[in-house]
Amino acid sequence: FMKRVRIGNGSGFWGDNLDAPVQLAEHGRLDYLTLEYLAELTMSILAVQKERDPEAGFAGDFLDVLGRLLPLLAQQPRLKIVTNAGGMNPSACARRAQEVLKRGGLARSVAVVTGDDLLPRLDRLIEEGHPFLNLDTGQPLSDVRDRVVSANAYLGAQPIVQALKMGADIVITGRVADASLTVAPAVHAFGWNWADWDRLAAATVAGHLIECGAQATGGLWTNWRDATDLANVGYPIAHFEDASGAFRIEIPPGHGGAVNRETISEQLLYEVADPARYLTPDVVADFTSVTLTEN
Asked: CA-to-CA distance for 195 and 230, rounded, in angstroms?
């Protein structure tokens, strides 16, 4: 197993900076490049696209990024990509990705993670007694069933790890928890088991910090005026130096932005309801026990 692993996230949302993944792969000395494209609104948009065209419904940005990454992938044969660009149609996304690789003369194995799309089974699940209650109001999903265009479960890191173990160079998923895109490479690289709760929680923190791209490196910073060259902001890298789960957040050399206690703590609390119970499919992480050290 690896003694250290570097995981960089080059996309925080569908429509993010297309230069960022290329810059990360070129300057970040990465083992894994993650690309995060999905939000709840994004899923409904992709669902409508797939309704109109059975071969659509994924984040097309990924194909543009993959095309631009081809020279770097040729130079870095061990660099692996993990992305949820598959959206509502990961299989179609994978087929198109293989076409991009083939045109570029690269042979890479592409794996697909499916199983998150519950829409075809939704009525049966409701009939079997799963009410899918609204978290805020307690209203059952059946009350609005006729307006539902997408229904997806958040998958965790386990199927991604399985794909990596099988030798996949590129893993394309549908809806997985954002942090799981980082948890999976860490678990695979260090050989952690699924009861290594503290390590899984640490990797979940790392994944949560880098999942939104440049938000952790100055883009969300209250004191953003103190950041250097935000127009050339560096995207974050989680550097695990050993298998303990401790990690550093870095940006590639020559890039702007900022990584400090403020930028990291602000992103740590982004989209967090109960910081003592951050729920993911992999682990329930207690963010109140996180220790930040600036150096």
From this structure: 40
**What's the half-sphere exposure (Cβ side, CA atoms, 13 Å) at 171?**
30
Q: pLDDT at position 11, please? A: 98
pLDDT band at 22 (very low <50, low <70, confident <90, very high): very high
DSSP code for 175: S
DSSP state of 155: B
Which pLDDT belongs to residue 128?
A: 97
Structure tokens at 154: 């958040």
CA distances from 265 to 25, 44, 116, 215 (A): 26, 31, 31, 11
Distance CA 119, CA 185 (A): 29
Is pTM beyond 0.90? Reply is yes
Torsion over CA of 44, 46, 52 and 55, rounded to 10 degrees? -150
- Give dist(CA 156, CA 162) in Å, integer: 11
- Return the ∠ at Cα 93 (arms to 88 and 99), rounded to 5°: 170
Backbone angles phi, psi at 233, to 5 degrees: -60, 140
- 1 pLDDT tier (thresholds 50, 70, 90): confident
Residue carrying the six token digits 């539902």: 148
3 state SS for 68-105: HHHHHHHHCCCCEEEECCCCCCHHHHHHHHHHHHHHCC
Read off φ and ψ for residue 133, nearest 5 degrees: -75, 140
Q: Which residues pair with 279 in a beta bridge?
A: 284
- Please name which of 73, 79, 62 lies closest in space to residue 16, comparing C-alpha atoms: 62
* 149-160 pLDDT per residue, tens: 899 999 999 999
